[in-house]
Each structure stands twice: as C-alpha cells, then as structure tokens.
Amino acid sequence: MVRNNQPEKQMKLACVIPLLLLSLVNNPLQVQAQVAQPITNRSASTQNNLSQLKFPRNGAPIGRRQGGARRNGCPNLNQPLTALVPGEETPEESKSFLALTVSEYPTFWVYLPQLPTNLRSGEFIFQDESGKDIYRTLVSLPQQAGIIGINLPSNPQYALKTNSKYQWYFKIYCGESQNTSDYLYVKAWIQRVPFNTSLESQLKTVKPGKYKVYAVNYLWQDAVTNLAQLRNTNSDSRVLAEDWAKLLEAVNLEEFAGASIVGHYNLQR
After folding, report:
1. Quick check: is 257 in a domain?
2. Is residue 172 in a domain?
3. What's the number of domains the chain is made of?
4. Fewer CB within 10 Å, N or C, the chain?
C-alpha cells in the first residue's frame, strides 16, 4: 500500500514560504548585493520619479553627513559643509551614512558652503574599516560655494575590495594653514558590491542615463556620479536638472539641487 504524502508536503511548504518571505524582508541588502533587481520589474512611477526611491538603512558605523567642528577656531557658516550621501538625520551623529557602489575607484561628492577667504585648505582622507589610512591628500578649495567631486586615484593599492566597508572624511582647515587642529569635517562610509550579470544587462539597454539603473538598484555612489557627470557636460538639459533634484530629494538633500558643480578633482598618485 502506497501512502499519499501530498498533504504533508503542502503543509511543509505552507510553513517554509512565510519564513522565506520574512527573511527577504528583513535582509533586503543581502539579497540586493547578490542579485540586482531588474529595472523592468520596477513600477513606472519609480523609474520616472527618482524622488520616490527609498535607499535602505544600511546600518553603517557612525558617520556625519553635515559638517561638525573640531576645536573652536572655525567660524559659523550660513550653510553646513555636507557630504552628498544617503542617510538618516539624527540629533547627534547618524549610524547609517553608507553608500553602495560597483566601482573600484569611486568619486565622492561634497557640498561646500560660501567660505571666508582664509579657508581655502581642505583634505580628503580614505580609510579602511578599522581606521587605517589608505589614501589622503590636501585639496585647494574653490572660491565659490557649490559641489565638488573627488576621484579616488586609479591605482591598484587604492582599489575597493568587494563587500568591504571603507570610511572617508573631507575636512576644511580653519585659520592658518599650519594649524591642523581646527577644522570642519564630514564623514561617511562606502561599500563595493559585486557587479553581476543582471546589472550588466540593464546597463546595456540604457544609453545615456545609466543613473536610473544605478539608483533603482540602490547604488547611490554610481547614480550620483553618473548624473553629475552628465549635468556637467549638458548644463542646459531640463530633464537632467529635474532628475538631479529628484535624486537628491530621495535622500533629503533637495536644498542642494540648485548648487553648481564648482570643482572636480582627479587625484593621482
């Protein structure tokens, strides 16, 4: 006599499926890091309205998106020094300023407010997760307020390793150039995730405007860099200006949508 196990199998599936769905909801970044969600599966409103994107709370170690001061030799500014990164504002420091990228040598973006004439010395610092310096360099700051981009040099010793977290700082030194104890700073985190075949196929179907593909896959660093580069070469494009505003709005940085890109540093070493 053969026993019918179909009801028992159905009962096991009924128990397993809810647990699997719960795991996917609680661990979206792990799923996303392995398989980029095809853009064709996103709703039309999400594709066409970048401001509706909700970048995940990545649980990164402590960072600071808006400039704080070390020591008291720095002046008060009308607007804060600000890192263009996703995150959640808190009364103190945030714990979620982590951006994802597929690039070995990403570009970092910072908003500089109008600075006094004696504040023209900045420094970019790139470190591993433990705080060990990988790269650092002084930067001469522009005279006008606006957004600057800082490229990590294309040198194998600085390349981001997949699934590793890195921290970066941008500092503005206050007062005399030889006094490095007083400064304003921002601090954020970045993690490189694998470049998979799904993402590759999506990017091949979109030319130009790859920033939308990056954005819906939560690759903030690549999205903001691609869109900033397109705006820099097509400054009269209304579509790009609107998408730039929407992308910044998605991470609550819409107040900087009208700021010009006033510097792009291609660092080499």
Report:
1. yes
2. yes
3. 1
4. N
State which residues form the domain around 92: 39-266
Q: Is 8 part of a structural domain of the chain?
A: no
**pLDDT per position as a tens digit, 152-171:** 999 999 999 999 999 999 99
Mind listing the pLDDT tens digit for each residue in 87-111?
866 555 555 688 999 999 999 999 9
Q: Tokens for 269?
A: 């070493």
Write down the pTM of the prediction: 0.79
Separation CA 102–CA 190 (nearest Å): 10
What CATH number corresponds to the domain at position 225? 2.60.40.2550
Specify the amino acid at residue 88. E
Give domain status of residue 191, yes or no.
yes
